[in-house]
């Protein structure tokens, strides 16, 4: 299982999620895409992402997928990503489709073509999300569906971007637990139980 964090960095909440996935029986890799930097303020996090080398983020994502795929018991790995990590996970599923079986994306999109992808997708969206463009979301959902790929879409009333991330002010425990239940079932089905 590849766990890709949002622009906040590899926070304690992300580490707890990694532990929770490991408790479900998955081998979890959660790379630190921010080189140890943790952000609290959205403006600082946005500036940190803008200063990041996009090629480095892409290389880290692909090398993480390849490392896990080499060690996988069954063909294909799962990716769980949040925001920035969701976008990277969706992108990886298109770039190395032979290695990715399931992608769960929390409040993230990708605007490239999903032709050739093989993964099953589960998309989680907040109700009130200033960071997500509704047209971009609709286009991505339509593109995935047109490819005939398995797709689940879940929206969580009354929530905001980062509702799934423990430790964030936007965290919504009820929505996060519902999302966890859905995620657990999805990953079990998508990765062969």
Account of the protein in words:
This protein is α/β, with parallel strands linked by helices and 193 residues long. The chain is built from 6 helices and 5 strands; from the N terminus they run βαααβαββαβα. The protein has a 5-stranded parallel beta sheet with strand order 1-2-3-4-5, with helices on both faces. α3 packs across α4. The longest helix is centred in the first third of the chain and has 18 residues, at 54-71.
Mean pLDDT: 95
Tally of separate helices: 6
Low-confidence stretches: none
- Basic shape: globular
How would you write the strand order of the largest sheet? 1-2-3-4-5
What is the string of helix and strand elements?
EHHHEHEEHEH
| N-C termini distance | 13 Å
Strand content: 15-25%
Structural class: alpha/beta
Describe this protein with a few key phrases.
6 helices; 5 strands; alpha/beta; about 190 residues; 5-stranded parallel sheet
Write the layout of secondary structure elements.
Elements: E1 2-4, H1 12-23, H2 42-51, H3 54-71, E2 77-82, H4 84-95, E3 100-106, E4 120-128, H5 134-146, E5 151-160, H6 173-190
Parallel strand pairs: 1-2, 2-3, 3-4, 4-5
Structure, briefly:
With 193 residues, the chain is α/β, with parallel strands linked by helices. The protein has six helices and five strands.
């Amino acid at each position: 299982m590849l766990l890709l964090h949002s622009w906040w960095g590899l926070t304690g909440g992300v580490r707890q999620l990694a532990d929770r996935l490991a408790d479900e029986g998955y081998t979890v890799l959660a790379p630190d895409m921010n080189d140890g930097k943790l952000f609290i303020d959205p403006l600082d996090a946005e500036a940190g992402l803008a200063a990041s080398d996009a090629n480095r983020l892409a290389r880290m994502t692909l090398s993480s997928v390849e490392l896990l795929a080499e060690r996988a018991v069954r063909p294909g790995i799962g990716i769980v990503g949040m925001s920035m990590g969701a976008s990277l996970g969706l992108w990886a599923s298109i770039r190395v489709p032979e290695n990715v079986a399931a992608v769960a994306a929390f409040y993230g999109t990708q605007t490239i073509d999903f032709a050739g992808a093989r993964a099953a997708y589960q998309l989680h969206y907040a109700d009130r999300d200033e960071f997500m463009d509704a047209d971009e979301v609709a286009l991505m959902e339509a593109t995935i569906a047109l490819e005939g790929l398995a797709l689940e879409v879940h929206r969580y009333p009354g929530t905001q971007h980062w509702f799934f991330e423990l430790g964030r002010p936007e965290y919504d425990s009820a929505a996060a637990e519902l999302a966890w239940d859905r995620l657990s079932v999805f990953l079990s089905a998508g990765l062969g139980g």
